[in-house]
Structure prediction request, 115 residues.
Amino acid sequence: VQLVESGGGLVQPGGSLRLSCAASGFTFSSYAMRWYRQAPGKDRELVAEITRAGGSRNYADSVKGRFTMSRDNAKNTVYLQMNSLKPEDTAVYYCAVSVYGMDYWGKGTLVTVSS
Prediction:
């Protein structure tokens, strides 16, 4: 299983970014996917999750209405569209999947929201 995140960077408050996570090594369309984030000095938190076919998504209260998770099963990729970014969204963002009861994580991509 390999997960590779991309798309992070520095953005001003109110701006937008789209993160991507390219997956390989498992049958992507058979598994729900998740995005987490970890801010400096804080625990990792679940940001969003999406079902296998993308028909259902759940979001942390802190990002509802601002973030949208999607997936393209033909490309083995999940996305996180982040709008109206706030300084408190600054974190390393990870995608994750549980395959046969084992959790797999990417190395993460850093998002910094600052003026």
The longest strand covers residues 91-99. DSSP finds no helices and eleven strands in the chain.
